[in-house]
Amino acid sequence: MYLGIDIGTSSLKAVLIDGDQRILGSRSTELEVSRPHPGWSEQDPDSWWTACLAVLDGLAADHPKEMAAVKGIGLSGHMHGATLLDDADKPLRPCILWNDGRSAAEALEISAASERITGNIAMPGFTAPKLIWVKRHEPEIFAKVKTVLLPKDYVRLKLTGDKASEMSDSAGTLWLATPERAWSDEMLALTDLDRSQMPELFEGSAATGTLKADLASRWGMTGKVVLAGGGGDNAASGCGVGAVAPGTGFISIGTSGVVFVTADRYRGNPAGAVHAFCHAVPGTWHQMGVALSAAGSLEWLSEVLEAKPGDLIAPLGEMPQGPSSVVFLPYLSGERTPHNDVKVRGAFLGLDQADGRPALTQAVLEGVAFSFRDCLDVLTMPLAEPRRLIAVGGGSRSRYWLRVIATVLNLPIAVPEDGDFGAAFGAARLGLVAAENADPFAVCAPPAIREVIEPIPGLVEAYAEAHATYSSLYPAIKGAMPR
Predict the structure, then answer these.
(1) Measured between alpha carbons, how far is 61 from 67 in angstroms, rounded to an integer?
(2) Based on CB atoms within 10 Å of each CB, which residue in 63, 112, 297, 414 is the most buried?
(3) How many CB atoms lie within 10 A of CB 81?
(4) Distance CA 326, CA 254 (A)
(5) Do you find a cis peptide bond into 338, omega within 30 degrees of 0?
(6) Looking at the domain 243-420+448-483, which fold is it?
(7) Which CATH superfamily includes the segment(s) 2-234?
(8) Where, residue-wise, is CATH 3.30.420.40 in the chain?
(9) Of 6, 100, 233, 377, which residue is the catalytic one?
């Protein structure tokens, strides 16, 4: 038996799988985010540990026999969080989260070096700029920093006593030399840190330590329990959906959106605001484009119109008839890829008196699809285009939306059979690999596919023209934003 634990921003989830990768049980509990000032986002690190204990206690109560047979645990978590520990391994302050924007000025200072060494633009959400901010604004805390850990690695410390991390999550700190898969002394020096304050690095599928004896006893585990390196949330999701071979990838249609493609070597594209990170399996890297408001745009429209998302989409039918005359720019909270613009905001253009809920809904769905096309375009500059993408996330339940996305991307979209292929499942797969010394590429195989949504041939050109119009509007909207 194997466990996967995913420390999300809003909840912590664990899944229990057997040797055939069947999910036998799962538990989750909610987490709270603190926003003490506009643009700030923080979380108490010990809330992760409290949640982890509660979730695993629950699984042990639900499945005592299976929990007793656990041999491996994998970890996943939200990336970039600055968890600062003192010399007693106690948190010095709340963790500064991935969606915290306070360190914009500090990110700009180190961006040139980051682009050269890591292949990534330094964004405020990444870890390194946050440490410069802490040094400037909370010097008494910075002076006491003995160790900096990412969220999942703080949970690892509590589980094993080991200070360890892995390549995919560490790539999001901006302290990792991504091509070499090693800490960069130059990037650390820019934040007045050194390797002694960093955890030891492992591959995501490698064993990093073993579960403490008292915790194993608490959950009824009778043998040695290995902790895998695990992965950052998107890399772990890649393991969950089998996107580990070069050229494979997935599209996540959640509140935010992700286009993720695996590569066999490091390739960076900072000019396109692409995330170029190590993958959670050895010898692989990935590129990732992020759209900040994907299903979140539809959720916003449903709140404004006081209608459920499904009720908004239903009148559109299942087969798109062509692009709307209304254009929606889904920049409700800025945009990541390809613009890296936290200040731009969304807009409807081309509205007519005859336009009602269906027109607005269609425009929102298409605008999100166009944002995914923007992401894919900057990924495919340095990467061979994947033959298809696997769809995950709540938005993948809409066949109409998937047909629009497939046609806009001109790429088949594969829909898995019902199941949980998220980060917790991917982490459990990595726990299996570490415990059994198994082949990660064999274990992290793609799921059974229920349906493949093909592009609509007669509409590919029309949607390409609509995307060109959409792309031309960003400079105008940016210039027209209120100052």
Answers:
(1) 9
(2) 297
(3) 33
(4) 23
(5) yes
(6) Nucleotidyltransferase; domain 5 (3.30.420)
(7) ATPase, nucleotide binding domain (3.30.420.40)
(8) 2-234, 243-420+448-483
(9) 233
Distances (CA, A) of 477 to 271, 298, 470, 474: 20, 20, 11, 5
pLDDT digits (tens, 9 = 90+) for 267-318: 888 888 889 999 999 999 999 999 888 888 999 999 999 999 999 999 999 8
Any catalytic annotation for residue 311? no
Give 110-158 pLDDT, tens digit per residue.
999 999 999 999 988 899 999 999 999 999 999 999 999 999 999 999 9
Residue carrying the six token digits 């047909």: 403
Reported pTM: 0.90
- The Cα–Cα gap between 396 and 452 comes to 12
Q: Say if residues 452 and 413 touch (Cβ distance below 8 Å).
A: yes
The CA distance from 251 to 258, in Å, is: 6
